[in-house]
Amino acid sequence: MSPGESGAGAADESADPLMAGLDGLDEALAAVDAFDRALVTGLLRPQPDGAAGLAACAHAVAGTPLAARVAEAAEKAAAGAAGEDHFVALAAARTALLGSVHDALMTGVQEVTGRSQGASPERSGAESGAASAGERRGAHGSDDAAGQSGNLLAAARSWLCDLARAGWQGIDHELVSGAAQIVSAMLPHTALRRLATLLDGFAAELAASCPGASLDRVPVRRWADLWARAMLLTVPGAADAPPAGTATGRLLPLGADVQEHPTAVQAQIHAVFEPADGGPPRLVRAGAAAPKPDTVVGAGLWQLLRPHCSLLAAVSEGRSMQLTDMPLTEAGDLIWSDEHAHPGEPADPFATARVVLPTAAEAVTAPLDRHPAGLAVPVFLEGYAVQKADDAPPGAETEQGGKAPQGADGQQGGKAPQGDGSLTFVVAGRPFAVDTDRIPAAGPLTPEAVAASGACIGLLRWDAGTFRVQPLAVETTVRKKTVARHAGGWAGGTADKAGLKAEKAATDAVAVLRERAGRLLRK
Fold it and tell me: Taking the CA of residue 78 as centre, how many other CA atoms within 13 Å lie in the half-sphere pointing to its CB?
């Protein structure tokens, strides 16, 4: 279960040794949870609990640049008289709180990886980004954006305000369907496509849950996450992130993280970039995303992504990429263009993880991306003991022979976390739950391969109150030979029988959909 699907995100964070000593973490999450509960019943006529949740959110940001604006918004919302500016301010406060949680958790992550992060701004990035979004909205309103784009942002903001007033228990098909026309009008505009995709997926989830009054369980944190992010994205310029410069040098892929939704798919490639000028290596990401029908699943997803990014072929072939003036943001995201890249020499991701990853600098997280659920830090684990859920948990005398993540402090102790995860890596006495649920069906990596592995390239994530490792690739032994299994192993194509079968099924599904679409257009 991801933190976005839980309404109880403040559950005993101190149980994880990586979060020991992070003061205020539980309090910040409790304030977020209180606000999220107010969205369940809605803000048109807030109940006493809802008013208390609004007050808790305002109290949590007292003393920050958001304080006065959020205090006013909470008061108006508690009286059922909140306008668009007030809802934007509340979304900004919630985003700033989760941004502070993100920054605190990164402190624990840096202690494990030993890698430094880029310089931070004078105030927290989430607070700065959220505050500037609220200030832009309050200062300029929808008149700040000219033409159709501004009108569409205003329409999306109005729909999101209606959602907040109705609450998740008050949604119905008529309310939710109001997003369809807005999304259709946004999609042709490149600058609005990020928000359009978010609204499309959000509306689809809400529609599948209508009517809200009959819901037995509400994904409180997740829907509040989506609502707040979408609300801030309706502020003109809030998500602007122009490239900070260009990248020229060698790109060494580590692995692919596949993120799938019924209406969209994205492959995010984590890699180490070595500048041609001899500067220090740094962690970067490159992504490819595409809308998708819900009939295209498994390895068929790659067919939708391959036309947008030549890097996918390099990932499956184990090659580096040579970049020339590739746009690169301050947050470490490559604005991928095949015109600025060409295939390089073979590059084993495990060699990169062992040799180069320990020296790579972390990127600074973009303000609106500072969220604990967005933590995804590349780590390399080796020589660990694998603990299965049905085995006895390791105690103080657990195997100590494994290597910790590169640069770790080697701290000992701690019991293997007991929870939903079926596997735990015990590394130098420190347990890491393994999130096998995130392993995509679109590749040869399987939970069985992870359980039999001796080395792992993964992403360190924060999930439901604890850190977990999402495997991107593992090394295992098959017939006395070391074999690597990668989540992105089929990204550029495959000769694997299972992969070929899934690709063929996807090809047939896409062909049928295109034929039907053509038939509709001819009418």
Answer: 18
Buried b (16+ CB within 10 A) or exposed e, 378-392: bbbbbebbbbeeeee
CA angle 241, 244, 247 (to 5 degrees): 125
**DSSP run (H or E) holding 456:** strand 453-463
What is the pLDDT, as a whole number, of residue 295? 77
- 511: burial class by Cβ within 10 Å (0-12, 13-18, 19+)? exposed
Pure H helices in 66-124:
67-78, 84-113
434 pLDDT more than 90: yes
Q: Are 362 and 115 in contact (CB under 8 A)?
A: yes
pTM check: above 0.85:
no
Supply the DSSP string of 484-501, one letter for each residue.
EEETTTTTT----HHHHH
Tokens of 144: 């700040």
pLDDT digits (tens, 9 = 90+) for 1-38: 333 333 334 334 444 556 666 778 889 999 999 999 99
Q: Using the 8-state DSSP alphabet, how is residue 416 labeled?
A: P
Write the DSSP string, 315-355.
Answer: HHHTEEEEEEEEEE-TTSEE---GGGEEEEEE--HHHHHHH
For the record, the structure tokens of 97 come out as 């709180």
Cα dihedral 393, 394, 396, 398 in deg (nearest 10): 180
User: Can you tell me the distance from the alpha carbon of 499 to that of 363, in angstroms, rounded to the nearest whole number?
Assistant: 34
- How big is the CA angle at 48 (ends 126 and 41), to the nearest 5 degrees? 70
The span from the CA of 303 to the CA of 310, in Å, is 12
Q: How far apart are CA 165 and CA 144, in angstroms?
A: 25
Give start and end residues of each alpha helix (H) in 346-408: 349-355
Per the DSSP assignment, residues forming a β-bridge with 334 are 286, 328
pLDDT in tens, 124-160: 334 444 444 444 444 444 344 446 788 999 999 999 9
Angle at CA 13, nearest 5°, toward 7 and 15? 130
If you ran DSSP here, which 8-state letter would residue 374 be given?
Answer: G
- Given a cut of 70, whether residue 355 has pLDDT beyond it is yes
Q: Please say whether the beta carbons of 406 and 357 come within 8 A.
A: yes
Helices and strands (DSSP H and E) totals, the chain? 15, 13
468 contacts: CB under 8 Å, gap ≥ 6? 421, 432, 433, 434, 435, 460, 461, 462
Alpha carbon distance, N-terminus to C-terminus of the chain: 45
Listed residue (516, 490, 518) closest to 504, CA to CA = 490
Tokens of 305: 């992504």
